[in-house]
User: Fold this.
Amino acid sequence: MRDISKLTASRRAFMGLAAGGLALAAGSGAAKAQRVSTRARIVILGAGAGGAAIANRLMDRLDGAEITIVDGRSEHWYQPGFTLVAAGLRPASYAVSGTGDWLPRGINWVQEHAAELDPESNVVTTTGGQRLEYDYLIVSTGLVLDWDAIEGFDLSLVGPEHGISAHYAGPDYAETSWRALDRFTDEGGVGMFGRPATEMKCAGAPVKICFLGEDIATTKGNRGKCDFVYNAQAPNLFGVPVIHHRVRQIMDERDITYRYSHVLKAIDPGAKTATYATPDGDVTDNWDFINVVPPQRAPQVIRDSGLSWADRWTDQGWIEVDMQTLRHARYPNVFGIGDINGVPKGKTAASVKFHLPVVEDHLVSEIAGREGTRMYDGYTSCPLITRVGRAMLVEFDYQDNLTPSFPGIIAPLEELWISWLMKEVALKATYNAMLRGRA
Amino acid sequence: MEEFSLSTMIAVFEEMFGAWLFWAMVAVAVAITLAWIYVLVRDRALSFRKYLVAQLSMPFGAVAAVWFVMWITNSTLADIGGPIDWIVLLGVAVLGAIGLAILVYVVQSLMRGRQSEA
Assistant:
């Protein structure tokens, strides 16, 4: 009898434990999704990766908030895919979806652009003349590509006819750029690559397309008649010293010429020449193929708003946010996500992923009357493709430290197939999950 | 990457193969596994003759799985770099081998019907 009661007790204990476990699981879920009631008016500028993702997160966390997102574009571009499109590995459609596909139900989507922003009176005016007053503003506009800064360049020149590639310009231009690279790697000649002197999104992308071009020429058996020249804007090939040395080593191994402190300022598509500003004066070179990556700046509406740094990046206009909380230094009800942030590193989708929980925490905490605790450490990631089938998964922070996600498993400076898989197949899925607020 | 959950893994595979192909492959794998359980229950024994033939098919399954993954990811065997690459590739090969072995066992059992061990 005693045995039976013991059995019953232990069974009850087991059931209790199981129920407790379930409650705990449910409880932790509930804690995560705990909603804060508010009447706050939140305006999000830009419905790209940062804007769409924070919209989904805030809709989950806030009950009764009036959330408005301002973006005139109907297309959403998966920008990390542009390199794959420009290397002929994916069609343009791979990088295109609809802006509306990613926005949560219940959000007010104003399909116009911001025309004016006044952070003193907390008002955004749209290109259609709508006046949006806000309690909190999230700036996630992204950046603009300043093609006009390259003298003699025009986007209509992109393609195999002129041997000009401009894969940053969009999915269709990336596809046209592939046709230019395809012809160059068939016919041979001099291929010019490089990056602008401004801050830029995905600083690894110009290196990647150079490596991919070299690999494609090799695979075609045409490497002997192709020269590859990489023009770095600084006295290094990558801002993080340890990665610079690794990239230099690979370029040496693969006979890719690299030049430091060469900034593209003009091209002549007729004569097929490019002019570079260097510390020793301008240098003009011939090319048969050139990949143009232009200077990058904050959109004019942001630069006119007074949100930009007054004494840093004055020609670029990134907004003055605290580098750890991403809250504006002078307007505490303004936050920044993504490329627009005036922080030392990280204009990548990977950075956006790490900006999101920080901004969410500080904004929701403030609404709930607490103080946010999460900090952004400058994390960014760049699956640095070195050839079709291989990449290095480099991740680093503000301090130029390597911050591998899979330490001891995926070596950051080793050319690996698994890192290629991360870039080619896993990245878009994680990106999409991020947009939905699930990652 | 901050976290790697089951839903992320599913999303990754959907991206890798396309949603239709991925779920079709899952459905085929589930169907074959169910059929295998069915023949085991029906025969109430593991036929060692069928098992032997199934084992002989394993290298073919391994090679086919590796080839399929290489094809779907625009890669070649020359891209295999470090230890983790070999481990993942070995995992793919093992899965392919086991998958084909089960398939061959099931096909033999279903085609020949219930047989006694000779």
